[in-house]
Design a protein that fits this description.
Blueprint: E1 57-61, E2 64-67, H1 68-82, H2 95-118, H3 125-139, H4 145-151, H5 159-178, H6 183-201, E3 203-205, E4 211-213, E5 218-220
Antiparallel strand pairs: 1-2, 1-3, 4-5
Helix pairs in contact: 1-2, 2-5, 2-6, 3-5, 5-6
Length: 227
């Protein structure tokens, strides 16, 4: 796998790294559009070997399926959009790291939606459009959006889903606070709830793409192959 700075680093099936990489966790407070929080986790992948995956499937999240097409479309668009932006000074993911981020994005998006449904929390298309307009306004103009998306490793075609996930995140956190969880503890409690939802509905990751850590609700890097 080559680095994106020289040639496109991931346009096909991702390779398994010789050493486990440190993934970016997509959970509470990490769905902010510009900033990301880096969390180091170690996954075990226990029981996933019992699942037989079709070649086109990256993950099963309950009844939902994350496909290779979902992930590669996101990665390819991110790489294409970087070509039109000066990425100097940006901490952008490349190679297997970028693949892992996009796997996490699609898996967590489903899990947040399922957690929201279980708590009767909804997000309308109007709310998504309103937040998108607010983000553009905060950036300055629509012309500033591409650079912000590149900096955040978000494909433009995924922006609406990203915003919807963000709104689910915020509403679920607010619900927890209304039920007595302190604002400072809401993030950790929501992460635990999302992890529990994953356990309840079942999350299974194709080991070629990573391992599911059920305690942290995150997909970790694929287990390195031994020679």
């Amino acid at each position: 796998m080559e680095n994106e700075e020289t040639t496109p680093d991931l346009n096909q099936t991702p390779e398994v790294a010789e050493e486990a990489r440190e993934p970016k966790q997509l959970s509470k407070r990490t769905l902010a559009i510009i900033a990301a929080v880096l969390v180091v986790v170690v996954g075990t992948g226990v029981a996933l070997k019992l699942t037989v995956f079709k070649p086109a499937v990256v993950a099963h999240v309950g009844k939902d399926v994350v496909t290779v097409k979902d992930v590669t479309n996101s990665v390819n668009e991110i790489l294409a959009e970087r070509k039109g932006v000066d990425t100097t000074g940006m901490q952008i993911a490349t190679g297997a790291d970028l693949t892992l981020e996009e796997v996490n994005f699609h898996v967590i998006a489903y899990l947040l939606a399922d957690t929201a449904k279980a708590n009767s929390v909804t997000v309308s298309d109007t709310e998504v459009a309103t937040r998108k307009a607010s983000i553009i306004s905060q950036l300055g103009s629509a012309a500033d959006l591409p650079k912000a998306l590149v900096a955040a490793n978000i494909a433009s075609e995924d922006l609406n889903l990203y915003i919807r996930s963000l709104l689910y995140d915020e509403k679920l956190a607010t619900l927890l606070e209304q039920k007595g969880t302190s604002q400072s503890d809401a993030g950790a409690k929501l992460q635990a709830d999302v992890a529990q939802e994953g356990t309840d509905i079942g999350v299974k990751i194709n080991p070629k793409y990573g391992n599911w850590d059920p305690t942290q609700a995150v997909v970790t890097a694929p287990t390195a192959k031994t020679k």
